[in-house]
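User: My collaborator sent over this chain with a note saying "see what the structure looks like." That's all I know about it. Can you take a look?
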Amino acid sequence: METLRLYDFLPSGNGYKLRLLLTQLGVPFERVEINILKGETRTPEFLSKNPNGKIPVLEIEPGKYLTESNAILVYLSEGTEFLPYDRFLRAQVLQWLFFEQYSHEPFIAKSRFLISILGKAKEHDEAIKQKHELGYAALRLMENYLTTHTFFVGERYTIADICLFAYTHVAGEGGFDLTQFPCIQAWIEKVKSQPGYININQV
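Assistant: Without extra context I'll predict from the sequence alone. Here is the result:
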């Protein structure tokens, strides 16, 4: 079996989702750092792997690539305890994966990118205020859900948790105050206590 190759930018939550799952599955992989700040996703070589010019990209075998972090999560978790077999529970996992990409990541991850990765909070002050409004709406929805649930699907740890955890636990780097969300804070600690946990800066 070919060793998986992950094209990744270390600070990226989208790449971290995959590193976390692969580590927790015990699946070996080679990581290739792609520095998005230096335009390394815009080279002809990288664009031949992902014409959309974004990381992460998973090379499953030479010349065979998968893109979009949540699609890769589903691919990697197929047939494991991280993705339920039950149709309804699987659909609930997908529901949270779509929520994360549409209602969560564009606001929480982008705020973190502007503030902590680019260091351009002042230049983007107005955009960040707008992102905070929508990001807090996503966090409130998660908080309300977690008042009666331990994890996001089926009361067990799944890729729904991995996907939402990636950017939520570093939301403070995007200027979000998580102290007002005690259920989210408790859930973050539960995720961190899972076997094989690695932090976002671990290769």
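A starting point for your reply to your collaborator: The mean pLDDT is 96.
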